[in-house]
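Lab notebook page, bench 4
Experiment: in silico fold of construct C2
Operator: M.H.
Input chain length: 475 residues
Purpose: comparison with the prior construct
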Amino acid sequence: MSSETARDRASEILARRYDVLVVGGGNAALCAAINARRGGAEVLVVEAAPRFYRGGNTRHTRNLRCAHDEANEVLTGPYPEEEFWDDLLRVTGGETDEELAKFTIRESKELWDFMNEQGVRFQPSLGGTLSLGRTNAFFLGGGRALINALYLTAEKLGIEVLYDAEVTDLEIEDGFFSAAAVSYAGREHRVEAKALVAAAGGFEANIEWLTEAWGPEAENFLIRGTPYNKGSMLRMLLDRGVKQIGDPKQCHAVAIDARAPKFDGGISTRLDCVVFGIVVNRNAERFYDEGEDFWPKRYAIWGRLVAAQPDQIGYAIIDSRSIDKFMPSIFPPIEAGSIEELAGKLELDPGKLRATVDGFNAAVQPGNFDPNALDDCRTEGLAPEKTHWARTISEPPFYAYPLRPGITFTYLGVRVNKRAQIIMDDGKPSANMFAAGEIMAGNVLGQGYLAGIGMTIGAVFGRIAGREAGNYVRN
């Protein structure tokens, strides 16, 4: 199709009046669009990214956390709602809307069947430090395969999708949506719809907004996901009387390889070696318990921990016994024959790093090392202690990975209820505006993160938003 023909086709699409306008192109948006369409609604999806980069952060995901009562061909055992809630409560420290969180967990039990019905396929869990075989379903082919399956279903259902299309304004009066301004190919188009589903992600790719919250430290953050999540949709909604939820400094932030690109590095830049060694800062000092809990329950705190260190950088250090125990980064480790040589390559003080390693080694207690359990390998007499998986760093060669805060998505968002209705500042739900995904994840995630729960929130509330938008249109 020529560019001129494509523009004409897009102008024709944008000139129609729709039942449901879905803003965003990831998991939450597609789940909403599919459910709305299955309910009989005429649906338009507008995605700010080009077609190749469609899908937002869903492109980089690997798995989905879901409650279930028994094992199946992929999940190795039951994961009851009560255990899921206990895991979420632990990582959030209680910073969650309990009613919405428990509702999300209960609804997650339907996601396995729903995703299979949309053509999504699963594979057994990856090994290493993940320990997710019982709790999380891994997508066969990863996030891009998932998003391709959802788009294929949307296409078969007759859902209109427009790429490179950014919403630049919203017409909202007294909590009621009537139209959106959509920029496409240099022109503004007014698109009317009976209902709106906001599923356009957070503001993690907006460095200026991150700096407002974090200060100049944000300049050193790396963005793991899409560069298209600028938060413009979120800002428009908040400026038009929508109730805010969450803290702008709270986010899914993990420690990633400092050599990763500024944007879109994805899952391959994550480092899973932390539990097998020590992590030091620019001053060659440890600053947190590397073995506090299983990695999927703690990996998301390490971005914030590194962000609080001088120059927002850290260094994970292991020895030869641990180099094959985790999924490696896309970048090779920095290798040295001695701790002093390693310090030189990292531009750290050799004497300080040697003292830190020696002090750690001296504090390691005898135990039975087991990467698949909360073992009894710990330290004694250190601050901070390492409570599990503590082994001396003594077998050369020695390896290091530089760490930076890697921001996946932000938790500042819009308030919703169990029908995915957007709540206005006066406390009343909008009749025809709904939200799903990162833009409302702060209702469930006040802080902390559980591996795979972002996909859970997006799919659960995407399905509900689509269903409720369709119900509103019919009624």
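Observations: The first strand starts at residue 18 and ends at 23. DSSP finds 13 helices and 19 strands in the chain.
Next step: discuss at group meeting.
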